[in-house]
Design a protein that fits this description.
Family: Belongs to the class I-like SAM-binding methyltransferase superfamily. RsmB/NOP family.
Strand content: 15-25%
Pfam families: Methyltr_RsmB-F, Pre-PUA_NSUN2, PUA_NSUN2
Structural class: alpha+beta
Number of strands: 29
Number of helices: 24
GO molecular function, one term: tRNA (cytidine-5-)-methyltransferase activity
EC number: 2.1.1.203
Enzyme class: transferase
Helix content: 25-40%
Radius of gyration: 30 Å
Distance between the termini: 54 Å
Largest sheet: 10 strands, mixed
Shape: globular
């Protein structure tokens, strides 16, 4: 046989550089600004009459401006009210004193329709951040607090659908198209907002895109909820899930509240997604209408009788809004009604839903009925896209839909409709639907029955969810070390591996456990629960190998009787500003509590502003070493705690703005001796304490040997060795 001819690889020719416009004075290249206009867009929406003719210019002018920044404070946190005071008294007060061109723009305004003054909006562009120190401070503050979950940066109109759901702690909630997760986080806040214990309800956050599901997990984890379950399924074909009732029988999981924020053409986001000006065309709305109907229809099937579903889009197109609602109401034949929710948000300026609209093809040909549509367009234009007769439209009460337009309150455009299910079954649901549930029950009781073939789950295979048994070694060690109260729901603890040597232990609510046990083989669950315990990897032998995690501490603290330490304000400052503080740096009261306490995890409790309306409690997870006491709190959270406790954090904010990524070494890459020096340098930079720790302090004491006796020098040397040991232990756990 002949040898294969080796083909010589040729390199690709270099791509020609794009021509650039050069300024007349030889300066940097000039770029033409994106054209914020689209003739087809204006023609289409003028024909739809979504705004009165006299408001058209104002409407278009608002669309061509940039979108203001909006954010909301996480309302269920104990320090939320005090954080609001700090924002208003410090950051907003600075903005009011800004002069010059910024006087006309950039002033913060409260979103009056959001409860408790927790949502705000302001113009904040990159130019303003560069020009003004006040804007730069606010920008750094928003980034820092967003990372810790205390603030969520979210478009103003996007906050409306969760508010209309009116979620209560016992509700079972489904977010059908949840990613990236800002609305899901808002729903979780409402679920936790009225109780101090683990809520009975659950939030099932679903998305069809596997990658976006992990973005959703990131959002949900900031709130440390035990009641969130992230799933990865097509919302239009969302599978039934089962839960067991108190008598042990199974039933299909029906939801009290459903958020149906469907995919859309997104032309309501033109103010922030300016590339849509160039890409917009009529076909975008026509092509996605069918998917929106299918998703909303499936949502109504999963809704319990008397439950509420909020349908929303960030589109102005009536084919994606009123046409979808009309199709649903006509198909439901009275089993679903459109609720007037406009009075639920006083202060929100909106327009009523449309009763009639135009249907166009991609070449902008307008049709008044389906009979006029050419056969070639029948796959793009459907009969149920056309508006109903005036009599039917009046019966459906389409004016109860809520349209939010950009010029009304300087926001993006949005559409919301609130639907209530008034019957147990919908007309198209077969009476034989219950047979599947009966079959599931029979399979559970009679093991001889061959179950249905498992649903094939696409994408990455997730780690299993394994609940801990009562006699589990990990649980026994944790229970004895922390003296856990018998009322603690240990049957709701789980790990993500089959092996006994688990590294992380998570806690979920009772409802989430119920769902996982009965549906884990047919539902693709991405993530759930909050991490409450994790293994301490190190060389030292401890009485318990598991420490309490900071994110799960507020949930488990009421059940733990041992290892709690009360600290004062100065103790809190030392813990938050130093990485490895010595025990001698703390107050005598805290040192007394540490005297007979063995090494390991400790829970440090501080009450801020006691006896005042601003009183709240902070709890930190820490570790007692040989001679040190440190806390396991991330940097941004430390700054947050210092801020809400009244300390000046301006230096930290300036440092973050000045710091370059290459300035900070990765501690995992350092040798133990270098890590000790780095920890000492960081400690000395972050504290005003006069006590010298580490090599520099040891050297200083050597130079003053005449003033210090041998005992003091030996004690300092011993302290240094203990610090090095603690750092080495920390490094070992990080590298493993």
């Amino acid at each position: 046989m002949g040898r294969k001819r080796q083909r010589k690889r040729q390199g690709k020719a270099p791509r020609a550089a794009k021509p650039q416009k050069v300024s007349e004075n030889g300066g940097p290249p000039l770029y033409t600004e994106i054209d914020r206009s689209n003739e087809a867009f204006e023609k289409y929406y003028k024909a739809q009459q979504i705004v009165p003719e006299e408001e058209w210019e104002e409407f278009m002018s608002a669309l061509r401006r940039g979108l203001p920044v909006a954010f909301r404070i996480t309302g269920f946190l104990p320090e939320s009210k005090h954080l609001l005071k700090i924002i208003k008294s410090q950051y907003f007060a600075d903005l009011l004193n800004v002069g010059g061109d910024e006087e006309k723009v950039g002033k913060p305004s409260n979103l009056t329709w959001y409860p408790d003054e927790l949502a705000w909006q302001l113009d904040l562009s990159r130019i303003m951040i560069r020009k003004s120190e006040a804007y730069a401070r606010l920008h750094s503050f928003l980034i820092s607090e967003t990372d810790t979950g205390n603030i969520t940066r979210q478009e103003a109109v996007s906050m409306i659908p969760p508010l209309l759901l009116d979620v209560q702690p016992h509700h079972k909630v489904l977010d059908m198209c949840a990613a990236p997760g800002s609305k899901t986080a808002q729903v979780m806040e409402m679920l936790h907002g009225h109780v101090n214990t683990i809520p009975e309800g659950v939030v099932v956050a679903n998305d069809v895109d596997n990658k976006r599901c992990y973005m959703l997990v990131h959002q949900a984890k900031r709130l440390h909820s035990t009641c969130c379950l992230v799933t990865n399924h097509d919302a239009a074909a969302m599978p039934n899930m089962y839960i067991s009732k108190e008598d042990g029988t199974l039933e299909v999981l029906k939801y009290d509240r459903i958020l149906c924020d469907v995919p859309c053409s997104g032309d309501g986001t033109l103010r922030k997604n300016i590339d849509l000006w160039r890409k917009w065309n009529v076909a975008n709305g026509n092509s996605i209408h069918g998917l929106q109907v299918r998703i909303a229809r499936r949502g109504l099937e999963l809704l319990v009788e008397g439950g509420v579903m909020v349908y929303s889009t960030c589109s102005m197109n009536p084919l994606e809004n009123e046409a979808v609602i009309t199709s649903l109401l006509l198909q439901c034949e009275g089993a679903v009604e459109l609720v007037d929710a406009r009075s639920s948000l006083p202060g929100l300026v909106s327009s009523p839903g449309l009763h009639t609209w135009k249907v166009s093809s991609k070449d902008m040909a307008v049709y008044t009925s389906f009979e006029e549509v050419p056969e070639t367009y029948h796959t793009q234009i459907r009969a149920h896209m056309f508006p109903p007769s005036p009599e039917v439209a009046a019966q459906l009460k389409l004016e109860r839909c809520i349209r939010i337009l950009p010029h009304q309150q300087d926001t993006g455009a949005f559409f919301v409709a609130v639907l209530k299910k008034t019957a147990p079954k919908l007309p198209w649901e077969s009476q034989n639907k219950d047979k599947e549930c009966e079959e599931q029950q029979d399979t559970k009781e009679d093991k001889s029955i061959v179950p249905r073939k498992k649903r094939r789950i696409q994408g990455y295979k997730e780690d299993p969810f394994v609940f801990l048994s009562e006699d589990n070694k990990i649980w026994k060690a944790v229970r004895d070390f922390y003296e856990v109260d018998p009322s603690f729901p240990n049957q709701q603890l789980l790990g993500r591996c089959q092996q006994e040597n688990k590294r992380n232990i998570y806690l979920v609510s009772k409802t989430v456990r119920n769902i996982i046990e009965l549906n884990s083989e047919k539902i693709k669950i991405i993530n759930t629960g909050v991490r409450v315990f994790c293994r301490c990897e190190g060389k030292e032998e401890l009485a318990c190998d598991f420490r309490v995690c900071q994110e799960g501490l507020p949930t488990v603290l009421p059940y733990l009787k041992k290892r709690k330490l009360a600290m004062c304000r100065q103790d809190l400052y030392v813990l938050l500003t130093e990485e490895y503080p010595l025990e001698t740096q703390f107050s005598p009261e805290l040192q007394e509590q540490l005297k007979d306490l063995e090494k390991g995890c400790v829970l440090l409790v501080y009450t801020s502003f006691p006896g005042t309306p601003d009183e709240f409690q902070l709890v930190l997870a820490g570790r007692r070493g040989k001679a040190t006491l440190r806390c396991y709190v991330a940097k941004q959270e430390r700054v947050h705690y210092l801020r809400v406790c009244g300390y000046d954090v301006s230096e930290y904010e300036k440092r973050d703005r000045r710091k370059k990524p290459e300035d900070t070494p990765k501690i995992e890459t350092l040798e133990p001796e270098e890590a000790v020096e780095y920890a000492e340098e960081t400690t000395q930079e972050q504290t005003e304490n006069d006590i010298k720790v580490g090599v520099d302090g040891w050297g200083a004491m050597l130079t003053m040997g005449e003033e210090h006796n041998t005992v003091q020098l030996l004690q300092a040397s011993k302290n240094l060795r203990h610090i090095a040991s603690d750092v080495s232990t920390h490094l070992s756990s990080r590298t493993r």
